[in-house]
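re: ur question from the group chat, yeah i did fold both. here u go
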Amino acid sequence: MEIVILDLEWNAAFSRRTQAYLNEIIEFGAVKFLPGQGAGEQFSCLVRPRVGKHLNAAVQKLSSITEESLDSGVSFMGAVSRFRRWAGDCVVVTWGPSDVLALIENCKYFSGDEQVPFLHRFCDLQRYAQTRMGWGTQEQVGLERAAELLGLDVSGIDHHRALDDSLETLEILQKVYEPESFAQAIQVCDEEFYRRATFKTTYIRDLDNPLVHPEHLQFTCPGCGKRLEASDKWNVKNRSFFARFDCPDCGRKFMGRVMLKLKYEGLVVNKKTFPVSEIEKPRAAEAGPVGQMDLEIVQGVGVLRFPAWAGSQTANAAFSTRIGGVSRGEFAAMNLGFQRGDRDENVAENYRRFCAAAGFDPESLVTGDQVHRTEIRRVTAEHRGQGVWTEKEVLEIDGLVTDDPAVTLVIYCADCVPLYFVDPEHGAIGLAHAGWRGTAADMAGTMVRRMAVEFGTRPQALQVAIGPSICGHCFEVDPPVAEVFQALEHADRFVAPGVGEKSLVDLWECNRQLLLAAQVPAENILVGGVCTMEESDLVFSHRKTRGRRGSNCAMLALRG
C-alpha cells in the first residue's frame, strides 16, 4: 500500500462568474511514505491562478509565495494531471478535510466535475492522530500543535509552504502509524464520500422546522433537577435559541440556550444554561467624549461619532447607543434588532428616531445576515430597505460596499468589531462586521482588496475607523481561540496572558495590524476606543448580559 501525504496552499479569490469566493489552490506539495522505510519521493508544483488576480497579503506573508513566482506555475488541471501521474494508485493523506474540500471545489470550478481524478482512497490524518493518541475529536488539533504534543522538532520547517507542511505531516504520521488501525481509517472515495465531504453543516433557526422536537426545548433545573418548559417565548439570537426558565419548586431562574446543528450524520442538539444576568438601565442623555469618540445627543437620541471625521464631505458615519429609543426591559431603549424578541413596531420606531438624529434616510438602509465570515457584497439603490424593511435577498454577508449615495450600509455589533472604510478619491465606502473569526480571517484586508477591485481604491488613500466593540482588557478567550490569533503575524502585539490558561486578545490592535499589512497608512486608521463591555449602559454588550440584549448598529453612507 503506497501512501502519499498531500498539502495544499490556496488563496481566497472572488469569482465574478459564480459571485462567490473560491479557495483557489496555488501550490501542491506531497511526499510518499513507505511503511517501515520512511520518506520517499517528493512532489512540488506551483499553480498559476485564474480567478484571483492578486494574492491575499496574509497569504504572501505566511507562505512567502509571490504573484511573480506564480506566473511560472501550471494550470490547476495541469497540476492535477502531474500529481496523478506521480502519485499513481495510492492512499491520499491530508491533515484535516479542508484540503480535500478545496480540491473538490477547484475541480468542479475548473472542469465542471467535482470528482478528483487521483482521489480513490483517503485518510484524514488529523482525525486518525487525535483518535489514536486519545486527544479526542471535539476540538480540531492544528498541525503545529500536534507536532508539539508528539515532541517533534519542526523548527527547521518552513510552515505554510505545501511541501514543508507535507513533510511535517509525514513526521506526525510516522509517530502515530499502526498498520491495522490506519487501514481501518482509510475511506473509499465513492459517491457517499463526496456527499459527506461537500455537505454543508447548517443551523436550524426556525422552531417550526419538523426536525425540532419538544424535548429539544426542555431543560433540567440546575438547582433541583426538575424538568422545565420555558417561562417565556423563545428568541432567535445568531445561531441559537434563548429563553428564560423559572423553576416553581426551588425558585431558580436561569437562561437556556439551544443550538440545533444539522450535520451529515443528523441533527446535533447542544444545550447550555446561564444565570439570569442583571441588565443596566440606559445611561443618562448627556453629551461628551467617550473613549476616542464623541457622544452627541440629538432630539434625545444618543449618537457616537468619530471626531476626526466630523467635517468629512465624503461620508456620514455613526454608531447607535441605548439612549433615546422606545424599547423596554433588556432591549431598553434603542434596540435596532428585529429578531431578538422585541416588538417589531418598537424596533421600527427606533430606526426612524436614530436615522433622524444621525442624518440617514431610513428607507435607504441595507444590511445582510452576518455569519462571522469574510463574504462581501456590493449594493446599490435597488437594494434599499433589504434586511430592515424587507427580507434579505442574500444571506451570509458580513461586509457591504457601495459607491451609490442612495443607500446606507448597516451592520450589527454587540462586542464584535465594526470597521468603517471611506475612499474619498473614488467616492466609495465599505462597512464590515468582524467578530473574532472574521478578524482572524482578515476581514480588514479582504475589504481593502475588494474595494480595490470594485472601485479602484488605493489602500494609501483609504480612511478606516474601528468602532465600538469589546476591548483587549475584556476579551478573554480559551486556548483554542488564542492559538488562532497566535498564528497571525505580530501576535505579541495583540495577544497577552490572561487568568490561568486563558488569554486576552485585543481585536482593535489585531485589525489595525491587518490594515497596516494591507498597506493602509497608520495615520489613516482611527480607533474609537469605546469598549462595549465597559460601557454597557451606553451600548449593548453580548458578553456582559449573556445574550440578553438588543442590537447596536453601525451605519455609513455617502453624502450627497
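okk and heres the other one u asked abt
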Amino acid sequence: MEDLRLVVDLVLALGAAFVGGMVAQRLGQPVLLGYILAGVLIGPNTPGLVADRERVELLANLGVALLMFALGVEFSFNELRRVRRVALLAGGIQIPLTVALGMAVGWAIGWPLPAALLLGGAFAISSSIVALKLLLGRGEGDSPQARVALGLGIVQDLSLVPMLALVPLLAGDAENVGLAVARSLGTAALALVVVSVVGTRLVPKVFYAVARTGSRELFLLSVVLIALGTALASHEAGLSFALGAFLAGLVVSESEFDSQVLAEVIPLRDIFATLFFVAVGMLLEPRFVLDNVGIVLAAIAALVIGKLLITGGAFLAAGVDHRTAALGALLLAQMGEFSFVLAGVGLADGVIDGEQYGLVLAVAVGSILLAPLLLAAAPRLVDLAERLPGVAAQERGQAGPAAADGAPLVGHVVLCGYGRVGAELGEALERRGVPYAVIEINPAVVRELRARGVPAFYGDAAAEALLTAVAVERAETLAIATPDLVTAHAAVRLARRLNPGIHVIARATAGGEVGPLAEAGADEVVQPEFEAGLEFARQVLRWHDVDAGEVTAAIGRRRTAFYGSDDAASRRGSVSGTLLPVVVPTAGGDDAVPAGR
C-alpha cells in the first residue's frame, strides 16, 4: 500500500476538492473557496482523513507550473513589453510601501525588527496564481486588469530573489551579504537572458520536428517537458519555479504552435492547479487561528486594506485609469505562495519562530480566502475609487478623439467590445446602414476599424470620458459585448446616468451575472453560450420531427427560467428565434435549410 501512497493522496486531495467545490458552488460562492476549505479538512491539523502535505504540495507545484505556462502561451513578449513601464513604476512604489506596512504591523504586535522586516517582505508579494485563477473563472484572462496585475506580479516574484539573499543579514550573519545579493541578481538576469534567447531559437524547432511526426502523444510530452524543464531550470538558477514556467510559455507564444500547445495543456492545468489551493488549505492550523483570532484578523485587515490602497495608488501613479487600477489592486490584495517560501527560509535561519511562522501562514491563507469575495464586490469598490479626490477630474480631462468623419453622432449605437460577439453586431449594423461607434481595449482592432471609417476609441467602456467621447448621451442603443462583468456593470450605470432613455443590451458570461446587469439598468441581458445551446436544441428537435410550436414553447419556458422574466424572455425569444434565423447546411452539400422552419 505504501507504494500507492502518492495515488491515495492524489485521490484524497482531488476528491476533497470536488466535494468542496460542489458545496461552494451550490452556496453561490467561487469554487476556489471550496478547494481551500477542503485542504483544511484533509490537512494534518484537523481530525479525520489526512493527506500527506509534502506529496500534495509536490503535485500542486505541477499545477502552478502548468497554470503559469498556459498564461505565458496566451500572452506574448509584445503584450508584456506594453505593461513593462506600468509594472516597473508600480512595483517601485508598491513593494517598498508594502514592506513598510508589514514592518508596522510586526512592530505593533511586538515582533523584533528582523522578524518585522521579514513580515514586510511577505506582505509585499502577492499570488499571481490566485489572481489568474479568479480571472479565468470570470473570463477576464485578457482584460486590462489582468495585464497590469500580471506585470506587477512578475516584478514582485523577481523581488523575492534579493529578499532571500538578505535573510542571512536579518539572522545576524552579515558576512558577504553584498556579494550574495549581487550574485543572486546576476544569476537571475543571466537566467532570464538564457531563457528568452535560447528558448526563442530552440523551442520552435523542437515543436516543428515533433509536429512532423503527427503524434499527439509526442507533442503533449514535448509541451510538458518544456514547461516543467524550464521551470526547474529557473528554480535551480535562483528564480521562482512559476516564473520559469511563465517564461517558457512566453517563448511558445511566439511560435506558430501556440494554439495547439494551449489546447493540449489546459486539461492538465485545470486538474493540477486545483491541488495548489488544496495545499494552501492544508497549511492552515485552525487551533492557532482560534487561539490568536484577534491578532490574525487585525493583520489580515491591515494587509488587505493597506495593500488595496497602496497597490491602487501605485497603479494610478503609473498612469493606469482608476477602474483598471482598482481591479488590479483587488486581484493583488493578498499574500502569495512565495511569501510561504520567504517565511520558511526565515524560520530555518532563525529570523522568526514557529508561532510567528504560523501567523504568516494564517494571514496568507485568510487573505486568499477573502480574494474571491473582494472581487465579487468589485463594482462597488470601483465606484468608490472613482470618487477619490482628483481621479474623476483627471479622467474627465482625457477626452477621446473626434469621430472619423467629423460628423456628430446622433441616434447611433455605442458598441463596447469588438470581439467575436461585437464584430457580428457591427457587421449587421453596417449592412443596414445603422451608424455606430466602438469602444475597444485592443489597439490593433481600433486601428483597423478607424481605417474602415468606423469611429473607434481605445480604452475601457467603464470610463465616463470615453462614453462621453462616443456621445452616449445622444445614442439610441448601448450594446455591451465585452465579457467583463465589472466593465459591463459600470458602463450600464454610467450610460443610464448620462442618457436615461437609452436602450441597453449587455452580455453575461454566466447565469449569475444576469441579475446584477439587469439591476444596473440593462434592458436586455444575453448569455451567448446559453443561447447557442437553445439553438442547438431547437434545430435537433426539428430534425427529429418534434412539432415546431412545441419546440418554440419549450425554448420559451427554458428562457423564462434562465433569465427570470417573462417579458424579457419573450423579447429575447423574438430576437433569437425570428429576427435572426440561422441557416444550417444540409448533409447533401450546398443546399441550406433555414433554422426557423
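fwiw on the second one: DSSP finds 27 helices and eight strands in the chain. The first strand starts at residue 413 and ends at 416. idk if thats what u expected
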